Structures are given as C-alpha cells and as structure tokens.
C-alpha cells in the first residue's frame, strides 16, 4: 500500500460513482480546490476528514491513515509538463513569471508569495466568445529577513 495507490483508488471510485470534486468537498467541509489537492495526494487530511473520505470512497482504515501522512509535494512526473493544460501554466510562468516577480517586489519588497498560506478559487466565467477559466490565487507575502 502507498499514498499513490490510495490516490488511484479515490480517482477510480470518483469516476465510477460519478462524483464531482465539489460534491466531495462539501462532504469534507473544505473548498473544492483544497479538497481536490488532498485527494490527488498533495495535502494532509485530519483524522475526521480521512474518515469522511473513507466512507465516500470505500477506503480501509489503513488507506485512511495514508491520507493523514504528510505527502511529498509536487505531483508532476516531468520537469516540463507534457499534459497540454498543465503545460499552459508552465507557459504562463515562463512568459509572465518575471512580470509577477517584478510587480510583487515593487509592491511588497523582497520576498515571496506563500504556497503554504494560500487560497485558490477556480470559477467558470460565461463569455459570448467562449467561456473563460477564472482562477484567483491569494498567497501571504513572506519577506526575506536580514540576519
């Protein structure tokens, strides 16, 4: 048994039951974005959350314990992503990364945007020219310290 095996079981059961990530998130009591990351092996569940997921996905007690182990973060199998959708995020950072960096440093100073103290909201935005993907990301600014 491994965390990857639990993730694969969750995905398989989600598909066969016809669940949405929003359905799962409502049962867990967290956002669909965080819950999806949890179920895909990138976050750590509490015992209560693991039990809810256990009931929903038919996970054994052992499998529920794997959900409570701090995972190795970073889920991409290659340095440059090959999945077209994920590659567009890579492309976005390649093109606009220096702009993000420059504007954040100008506005906040020398530091980073946290991916730990972080929130994300993904919504469908209707548009007559084709629906748009609207992703809002909010991370705490962490300044570099002098010592």
How would you describe this structure in keywords?
147 residues; alpha+beta; 434 Repressor (Amino-terminal Domain); Cyanate Lyase, Chain: A, domain 2; 2 domains; two-stranded antiparallel sheet; globular
Number of strands: 2
| The level-1 CATH class of the largest domain | Mainly Alpha
The gyration radius over C-alpha positions equals: 18 Å
N-end to C-end Cα span:
44 Å
The structural domain count equals 2
Main β-sheet, spatial strand arrangement: 1-2
Category by helix and strand content? alpha+beta
Low-confidence stretches: none
Share of residues in helices: 40-55%
Overall pLDDT, averaged?
A: 95
SSE pattern: HHHHHHEE
C-alpha geometry: globular
The largest pleated sheet is described as: 2 strands, antiparallel
CATH architectural category of the largest domain? Orthogonal Bundle
The CATH homologous superfamily of the largest domain is termed lambda repressor-like DNA-binding domains
* CATH fold-type name of the largest domain: 434 Repressor (Amino-terminal Domain)
Q: Helical region count?
A: 6
Please indicate the percent range of residues in DSSP E strands (runs of 2 or more).
Answer: 15-25%
Question: How would you characterize this protein structure?
Answer:
The chain is α+β, with helices and mostly antiparallel strands and 147 residues long. It folds into two domains: 3-67, 434 Repressor (Amino-terminal Domain) (Orthogonal Bundle), CATH 1.10.260; 84-143, Cyanate lyase, C-terminal domain (Cyanate Lyase, Chain: A, domain 2). It is built from six helices and two strands, in the order H-H-H-H-H-H-E-E. Strands 1-2 form a two-stranded antiparallel sheet. The protein is globular. The termini are far apart. The relative contact order is 0.11. The mean pLDDT is 95.
